[in-house]
Amino acid sequence: SPCEPGDTADSPHRPAGGMRKGLTSYGDQGFSLFLRKAFIKGAGFTDAALDRPVIGIANTGSSYNPCHGNAPQLIEAVKRGVMLAGGLPMDFPTISVHESFAAPTSMYLRNLMAMDTEEMVRAQPMDAVVLIGGCDKTAPAQLMGAASAGLPAIQLITGSMLTGSHRGERVGACTDCRRYWGKYRAGEIDAEEVADVNDQLVASVGTCSVMGTASTMACIAEALGMTVPGGASPPAVTADRIRIAEQTGAQAVQMARDGLSIDKVLTPAAFENAMRVLLAIGGSTNGIVHLTAIAGRMGLEVDLDALDRMGRETPVLLDLKPSGQHYMEDFHHAGGMATLLRELKPLLRLDAMTVTGRTLGEELERAGPGFPQDVVRTIAHPIYPQGGMAVLRGNLAPAGAIIKQSAADARLMEHEGRAVVFENLEDLATRIDRDDLDVTADDVLVLKNIGPKGAPGMPEAGYIPIPRKLARAGVKDIVRISDGRMSGTAFGTIVLHVTPESAIGGPLAHVQNGDRIRLSVKNREIALLVQDEELARRMRANPVVAPTAERGYRKLFLHSVTQADQGVDFDFLRAATMVGKVPR
Ligand code: FES
Ligand code: MG
């Protein structure tokens, strides 16, 4: 009988459980399975199909998400891989979050997507899950959710978009989006040209083609051992990407059979490798927030000071915009992550397990020798001598702040200047372009209330625009400080993630126009040059009331969201107990 409990336990073809997993609904296990099979048979399945390992495929395709525009092709290929390996593929929808179509911010919705992923993976019968993600918040949300769900899980990245061409110049989202908009603001190009380039910046479906957050998280997913080897770099529309999808499906079946659950992959060694890679690729500063959140799900705390020490011995090797010159498709042609990892080998934990059931070191052996290319530099000739980002501390950021030094103006990294303060995004929008704004290129722009609770959702508004009157005068960079985030595709001397944030009364809340601020990347310092007594007086005179909401997800978010140093995850979603720190 198909509904006898335990009738598959000794079958070599279906040890993973098939449709039997998670039968808790009706008390009577036999009846539960009977009903479950009756309903799924409504879709035309046979018993033979249903007794195979069931591989869930988290489908994040959406008309609102062109970065996942290849989801239908990927799902088809994953299903082929699953079936060739003897499994049963079952795709199911979860929320999809695109950077440009998620108000108030995509980050506000990342934790919701993580919860959706976790609970649907847990609720539905599956023995392993393929997570199709790509746009900035999606892969981290899926890794967070899958880490908590605990099943065997494998990440399938959607892949980068192709680059376009504008009047003979190669362009790609979205470092070039910013560059062209900057030119337009400065009056260097006209409205017709800025409309022309708009057609070329995103030349196909797929994720941003520079080392923004999407590319960063793709590389991190592979460095964590969560993708098949080579899973990070193939562009979305290539045959290589489709082959990766097929392999991913087949590997998911193997993982189900072997019981290769996510806790065997997401170990401290894996996180250490991911941090090493984040630094060596000149990755997005968002990567550290996401890694912190994923690690938190596994009971691991990210030690920012140890990360900073790691950064001092990890050069930036990947020559991609915005730190360098190339695009993701060039990285793929240069051999992708195997080329990078081979160069980083002396710095990696080669014993880290991957989704293939082999260690990172074993996979690197199998990847074979490299070949001449000019996208991944050698450790002897890096594009930047230290890691892409540095961790700053000081009275302005007692729990830390981040600067992406590889994408900053070297001239401004030791700088003292006068604060020009904007209280929030509205204040910024109203005044930043006014001709009577009292600002010079030597000042320090300070933007408050764009932290996790402030905006809310920690928007990527940390990339404060150069005030129009300075831009017109040719100023390309200025020191900027906020409690928000910045797109990985942006460039500038920009201090981010100031913690604690101003909306909960962090010192940033009490900065005033004309205060002196000192930035020293060399000393890893961000200091407000105001006496402690004066700062305490300001705090007493203007006590901050943290924002709250009446109802709904916003209420949950404002109640539960943690600060940047805990990954901006919800406090109740982190592991109940912390068991260790990363990196070592
Ligand atoms: Fe989706 Fe950039 S907008 S990756
Ligand atoms: Mg982005």
Automatic annotation (TrEMBL):
Which residues lie within the region annotated Disordered? 1-22
In terms of SUPFAM superfamilies, this protein maps to: IlvD/EDD N-terminal domain-like (SSF143975), LeuD/IlvD-like (SSF52016)
Matching entries from Pfam families are given as: ILV_EDD_C (PF24877), ILVD_EDD_N (PF00920)
Keywords of the record, alphabetical order, are: Iron, Iron-sulfur, Lyase, Metal-binding
PROSITE patterns the UniProt entry points to: ILVD_EDD_1
Question: Could you tell me which residue ranges the Dihydroxy-acid/6-phosphogluconate dehydratase N-terminal domain spans?
Answer: 52-362
Q: Gene3D superfamilies, per this entry?
A: IlvD/EDD C-terminal domain-like
GO MF entry, a single one = iron-sulfur cluster binding
Please list the residue ranges annotated as the Dihydroxy-acid/6-phosphogluconate dehydratase C-terminal domain.
374-567
Q: Which InterPro entries match?
A: Dihydro-acid_dehy_C, DiOHA_6PGluconate_deHydtase_CS, ILV_EDD_C, ILV_EDD_N, IlvD/EDD_N, Sugar_Degrad_Dehydratases
Report which superkingdom the organism of origin falls in.
Bacteria
Q: Which family does it belong to?
A: Belongs to the IlvD/Edd family.
Q: What NCBIfam families has UniProt attached to this entry?
A: PRK06131.1
Protein's recorded name: Dihydroxy-acid dehydratase
Q: Which organism is it from?
A: Rhodoferax koreensis
